[in-house]
Amino acid sequence: MTEVSEILMSVLSAIRVPRPGDRVHKDECAFSFSSPESEGGLYVCMNSFLGFGSKYVDRHHAKTGQRAYLHITRTRKTQKEDDPNSGSGDPPKKKPTRLAIGIEGGFDVEQEQYEEEVKVVLFPDRQEVTLDDLSSMPDVVRERVSLSVAELQAADSVSHTLQVQQWDGEVRQESKHAAELKQLDNGLKIPPSGWKCEVCELQENLWMNLTDGKVLCGRRYFDGSGGNNHALLYYQQTGYPLAVKLGTITPDGADVYSYDEDDMVLDSKLPEHLSHFGIDMMTMEKTERTMTELEIAVNQRVGEWEVIQESGTTLRPLWGPGLTGMKNLGNSCYLNSVMQVLFTIPDFQTKYVSNIDKIFDEAPSDPTQDFKTQVAKLGYGLLSGEYSKPAPDPADEPNTSAEPRGDQVGIAPRMFKALVGRGHPEFSTNRQQDAQEFLLHFINMVERNCRSGMNPSEAFRFLVEEKIVCQQSQKAKYTQRVDYIVQLPVPMDQATNMDELQEAERRREEAESSGAPPPVAPRAQIPFAACLAALSEPETLTDFWSSAVQAKTTATKTTRFASFPDHLVIQIKKFTFGLDWVPKKLDVSIDVPETLDLNALRAMGQQPGEELLPEVAPPPLMTPDVEVKGILGSHGNEEDDSLYSPLLSPVLDDSTVSQLCEMGFPLEACRKAVYYTGNTGIDAAMNWVMGHMDDPDFAAPLVLPGSSSAPGTTPTESLPEEHLATIVSMGFSRDQATRALRATNNVLERAVDWIFSHLDDLESMDVSEGGRSEGGSEASREPPPGPRVRDGTGKYELFAFISHMGSSTMCGHYVCHIKKDQQWVIFNDQKVCASEKPPKDLGYLYFYRRVVE
């Protein structure tokens, strides 16, 4: 023990006591998914507070020379009171009654009980020091080490800090109308029961307006149930804002809705407001489900949930390499589904998993913040099979006769989710997200982190050719852009069961007029060929500014593939907006084929004898900060500003600018939206606004490219030197940093985004370290090349699809199906099973691979 005491004394200066703000990783290894519950436990460096599994702690010691680690092991506590019904299968779960997580009545969160054992381990010989051993050591050693151990045990781990343990969806605010609500003295008294809608006589989902006591039915839900919207229509006619749901009134309160604030609210004067119509809260009993209970029930009832999750059949659990489940960290199923699919693609396997040792060896001092390290860690966790094992049975003694439940130990991608979501307004939260948006976000991050070497995102990258023909002059304009996803429209008017849909609508209208419950709506059957035809058919542009006739006229735009990627992603545009701008989901079944031939959609380029539109004012309408979906330089390279004459004012569609302003957006932002979308209409401009609302210069005045000075003449001194230094420190040349800042009005954040989005163009510029010289060759003086794209035949086969259940992308659940060795496999978070009936007609994102002939 004397020798150990001497070692501790020699490393005492490297043993730190955690302070507020220190990141303590005591739940998960930086390089693997090992945890204190894993075999071998977790080793926490007592200097950097990084955690390492038994497999990787020696690597950290050898690289850093750190010798003292806190070894943490946890074992599950023995349950003293077992539910008598939990002997086999899952223990009974309480039905959720509250739209919340981690709160009484809400959805359950895992609350395992563990016994924890800690000791100090000294490397390289792994000498162990228990807390009892410290008592016989010198005071200075005992006090320092004991304090460090105690603070490490008491500190919140990073994963615990990031994870939202409790979420309450029922937190409501006091209505602004409650205190001063004016009630009409009409003598109306509401009976304690026997209510019905005064318009359609519906007897459920009834709301009483707190201004005049009118009893009307509530809104229709997305699945066709609910009311007939009469209470909402009444508000729109009268402006009376508050209504209470009859049947939910108890001495503790009731459901109150504010139509003006469009939310469930609190009414502190509810007893007074109810007594005005003869209702005594203290004598009322609940007879109707609350809105929260209805939302939970509806989300559990929708038919597509059972079909997509294949819950009507007994599925055979699968284990082994490439068959690893992922824990849901709270609405993280969108991330789970996307990453499961991506790591079945060879490009991502080769980039991150095949090179994992090299990536780990080159990892920075804090690998938890390194993109390549965390992606490689996730990929290896999914493909290795190390974590593809049955989850421990909740009961203390496993029942060998029970059927396998399908749940796996799996992996919990906490570090990965925190890293890829950091700084993002949506992906940094625990709210549900759109899987398509996350896929593009992740591709963008891959692009930024693959400046050199292999870029797996190239597997998805393709060129789109857009041809616009002026109908007055018959002259054409060709542009190309990079894309990663094909968005396929859903032509509802092409449904093959249109007669059935029309009959169902007729029955619904009859039920609405008679007050009867609406019938179950059938699902529209849409041919895939009709979706493809809607994508390729010409689009009419009514307000196209033609440079040939120097005026607005009508034009047609056709879109074709200028290249075909190795892997094609197709998004079915199921989510749309109604006339009231409320998002809704189209309930459709599409006969998506297993094989696909898109060669007929190959772009042909300029045709013989075809005249091109002259390149004159207005300026090319291209945003300088475009990211993943950038427009290629079809109007000359970005060094040539000859078309951006400062004497030319942008020709803007005033009507579109006015419409955007009426929606409450700043005038200058509206002008930029119309300018950068080429006067192509309100929809395109609105999309631009939604995509740039977080830009620092969103409301800044529109500055035309080249309007401040001629190209190449702006002195470097006019650029913020600190911004230049920041970009140069990232490995770029001063010329590249200068160009990025000029293109983004000297906004550092946008300049960094711009430079990573134009890497292919920048490769032609002079690079600081070992790059080309300015006049090195003729090739270096050619226009910058376009982005690298792969090309080949347009024949594909389906290998994966992601499905969504729920009423919008902001709620519900995602699962994915992946074909492995000619067998469809369903990945439903931690459950991985052989698929019996893959619901290919209900998918949201489809993934195809090129058929090699």
Automatic annotation (TrEMBL):
PROSITE patterns: UBA, USP_1, USP_2, USP_3, ZF_UBP. Residues 324-851 form the USP domain. InterPro entries: Papain-like_cys_pep_sf (IPR038765), Peptidase_C19 (IPR050164), Peptidase_C19_UCH (IPR001394), UBA (IPR015940), UBA-like_sf (IPR009060), Ubiquitinyl_hydrolase (IPR016652), UBP13_Znf-UBP_var (IPR041432), USP (IPR028889). It catalyses: Thiol-dependent hydrolysis of ester, thioester, amide, peptide and isopeptide bonds formed by the C-terminal Gly of ubiquitin (a 76-residue protein attached to proteins as an intracellular targeting signal). Keywords: Hydrolase, Metal-binding, Protease, Repeat, Thiol protease, Ubl conjugation pathway, Zinc, Zinc-finger. Residues 67-98, 387-408, 499-522, 766-792 are annotated as: Disordered. Zn(2+) binds at C197, C200, C217, H230. Residues 651-692, 718-758 form the UBA domain. It is an enzyme of class 3 (hydrolase). It holds the Pfam family UCH. The active site is at C333 (nucleophile), H813 (proton acceptor). GO terms for biological process: cranial skeletal system development; dorsal/ventral pattern formation; negative regulation of viral genome replication; protein deubiquitination; proteolysis; regulation of protein stability. SMART domains: UBA, ZnF_UBP. This is Ubiquitin carboxyl-terminal hydrolase. It comes from Danio rerio.
